[in-house]
């Protein structure tokens, strides 16, 4: 609190001293060290936006800044505050801190801006009404007009990462622009003549509308192309758009599906013609540009999530993270990216952060929410691809780790987006069997408690797999039968190694459930035969145990001793019958076992070979 009080006192100064700047930098760097990122600038522009009656003054200042050389950022900020003369608030104090630490010294620019790609482009500003040539990027505001000439192309970038491209000989005016999601005005662009290509990113903002003399086209997500002239042509490239005939008051808006185009024209009778879309050179070029832009957005989002993930709840900067979340993308893909980034930070930082557990619980609750309310219209392929890339993150998260609850939550997400949900469930069940086998030979003090949790999870996932067993094919039932046998073996291995009574009781209950499940499967496969009741399962298939031991040795080296591994392998060897048929398996087992137990395997081989010679 002493640090905050000092920050507030110093922040009231219009021109902060060099000492204040250095002290602020040092305090912030002690809490977080991160690279400069674009999102801070965009956030500040939202927070520091003046009240409506000062909008004209602000626009004029923005224009002036853009035409000047780079200036010292403190002089720009001081000038702005001198004009506005508003009291310093809590959030402005934070803004000063961020400006000192991360924002590069550059002139201001609005979130909605124009970029000249090639050729001659002119802009008529709302406050001047004079056409002026544009050679570089320029901020845009309500009332501005843009026009392109022969062999010219310009791009308008909106605050929600959407882009509108103007072809040659195009004139467009800005009726409304949305600077934040709390304004009630719809963003509207008016196309007087020419052609524009619009790529709207998924966002929480209101839909974008483009008006022409004949039509009004609206969409909140997708790609569409509009050409205005003697008649208006609307082409839906990705996702459908809502098209309204402006000059026919009796006509109702109609959805134009992707892959179709509509021609609206005025004659003796209003005519609307809808036909299949035919691509041309303009469309093909913009599709290529959209892909390049998409990759750029993905890169920027990845950088932003890395920065956000490193800011913990007890940091002075965390209110700004929450503020960014309000203004940033709110789709499921963004949230999934952020949580994976958080998990990565916690994996690399260790367990020293005092707020880690509380934060991880919050993230776990959020992950649970996602699995229940995922946006079914979101880009399924993009999310699936990202999850497949990041799935390996949780492969090293073992029971007892702080990230283990988060892994459990995301396993539901993996099933939801898997190309084969059933196979994904079976894979997760196999991972739980490996965990149980690993914990069975662990000397960790908390192993019994974690093992109990793993067994409960195993049985829960086992029930999920058998939900649709009544409608499965015979080959699928055979596969499920094999899965249940493997579950029994894993539980039997745990029972022979763990002396905890509560765990032993849970294992027996689970075994009874699995045996009943086996009986049901056998009845489905061979209904004419009597179901064999299994009273006690003895482990005959030692080969399966050896494969699990190999996995155990690799995955639980950190808390399993040589003695526990040796005892388990001895138990496996005792289950192998002294018959020649066991030799191939034992020879392969010899090569994969640790040095300290290899002699025991060799001894078993010699016993079988001696018995074979006697025969």
Give a short summary of the structure:
With 615 residues, this protein is an alpha+beta fold. It has 20 helices and 17 strands.
Explain what the structure shows:
By secondary structure, the protein is an alpha+beta fold. Among the domains are: 2-101, no CATH class; 113-278, Jelly Rolls, CATH 2.60.120; 420-538, no CATH class. The chain contains 20 helices and 17 strands. The protein has a 17-stranded mixed β-sheet that branches. Helix 9 (332-349) runs parallel beside helix 11 (380-390). The termini are far apart.
Uncertain segments of ≥5 residues (pLDDT<50)? 1-16, 24-58, 64-110, 179-184, 528-543, 551-560
Q: What's the average pLDDT?
A: 67
- Quick one: how many beta strands? 17
Termini distance? Answer: 87 Å
CATH topology heading of the domain at 113-278: Jelly Rolls
Tell me roughly what share of residues is in helical segments: 40-55%
Report the radius of gyration as a whole number of Å.
33 Å
In CATH, the architecture of the domain at 113-278 is Sandwich
* Percent range for β-strand residues: 5-15%
> Major sheet: size, sense and barrel closure?
17 strands, mixed
CA-based shape: elongated
CATH class term of the domain at 113-278: Mainly Beta
Number of contiguous helices: 20
Q: Give the class from helix and strand content and strand pairing.
A: alpha+beta
């Amino acid at each position: 609190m002493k640090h905050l009080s000092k920050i507030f006192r110093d922040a009231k100064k219009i021109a902060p001293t060099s000492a204040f700047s250095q002290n602020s930098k040092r305090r912030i760097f002690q809490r977080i060290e991160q690279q400069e990122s674009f999102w801070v600038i965009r956030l500040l522009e939202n927070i520091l936006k003046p009240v409506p009656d000062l909008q004209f003054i602000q626009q004029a200042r923005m224009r002036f800044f853009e035409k000047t050389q780079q200036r010292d950022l403190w002089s720009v900020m001081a000038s702005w505050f001198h004009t506005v003369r508003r009291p310093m608030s809590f959030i402005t104090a934070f803004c000063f801190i961020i400006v000192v630490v991360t924002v590069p010294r550059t002139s201001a620019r609005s979130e909605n801006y124009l970029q000249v790609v090639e050729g001659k482009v002119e802009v008529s500003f709302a406050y001047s009404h004079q056409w002026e040539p544009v050679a570089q990027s320029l901020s845009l505001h309500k009332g501005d007009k843009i026009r392109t000439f022969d062999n010219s192309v310009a791009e308008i970038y909106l605050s929600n990462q959407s882009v509108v491209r103007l072809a040659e000989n195009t004139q467009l005016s800005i009726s409304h622009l949305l600077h934040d999601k709390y304004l009630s005005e719809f963003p509207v662009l008016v196309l007087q003549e020419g052609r524009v290509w619009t790529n709207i990113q998924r966002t929480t903002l209101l839909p974008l509308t483009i008006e022409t003399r004949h039509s009004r086209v609206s969409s909140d997500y997708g790609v569409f192309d509009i050409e205005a002239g003697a008649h208006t042509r609307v082409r839906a490239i990705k996702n459908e758009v809502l098209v309204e005939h402006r000059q026919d008051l009796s006509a109702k808006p109609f959805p134009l599906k992707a892959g179709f185009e509509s021609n609206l024209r005025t004659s003796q009778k209003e005519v609307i013609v809808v036909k299949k879309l035919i691509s041309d050179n303009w469309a093909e070029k913009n599709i290529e540009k959209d892909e390049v832009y998409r990759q750029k957005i993905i890169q920027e989002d990845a950088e932003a999530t890395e920065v956000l993930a490193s800011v913990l709840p007890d940091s002075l900067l965390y209110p700004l993270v929450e503020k960014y979340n309000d203004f940033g993308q709110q789709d499921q893909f963004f949230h999934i990216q952020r949580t994976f980034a958080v998990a990565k930070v916690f994996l690399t930082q260790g367990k020293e952060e005092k707020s880690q557990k509380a934060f991880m619980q919050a993230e776990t609750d959020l992950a649970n929410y996602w699995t229940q309310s995922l946006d079914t219209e979101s880009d399924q392929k993009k999310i699936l691809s990202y999850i497949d890339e990041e799935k390996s993150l949780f492969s090293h998260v073992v029971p007892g780790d702080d990230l283990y609850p988060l892994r459990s939550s995301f396993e539901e997400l993996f099933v939801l987006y898997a190309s084969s949900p059933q196979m994904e469930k079976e894979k997760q069940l196999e991972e739980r069997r490996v965990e149980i086998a690993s914990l069975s030979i662990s000397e960790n003090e908390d192993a019994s408690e974690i093992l109990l949790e793993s067994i409960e999870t195993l049985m829960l996932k086992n029930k999920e797999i058998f939900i649709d067993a009544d409608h499965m094919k015979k080959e699928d039932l055979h596969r499920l039968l094999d899965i249940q046998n493997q579950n029994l073996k894993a539980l039997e291995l745990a029972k022979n190694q763990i002396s905890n009574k509560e765990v032993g009781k849970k294992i027996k209950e689970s075994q009874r459930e699995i045996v009943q499940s086996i009986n049901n499967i056998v009845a489905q496969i061979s209904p004419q035969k009597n179901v064999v009741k299994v009273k006690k399962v003895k482990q005959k298939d030692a080969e399966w145990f050896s494969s699990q031991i190999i996995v155990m040795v690799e995955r639980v080296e950190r808390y399993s001793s040589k003695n526990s591994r040796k005892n388990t392998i001895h138990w496996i060897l005792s289950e192998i019958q002294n018959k020649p048929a066991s030799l191939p398996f034992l020879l392969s087992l010899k090569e994969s076992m640790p040095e300290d137990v290899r002699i025991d395997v060799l001894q078993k081989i010699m016993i079988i070979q001696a018995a074979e010679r006697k025969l």
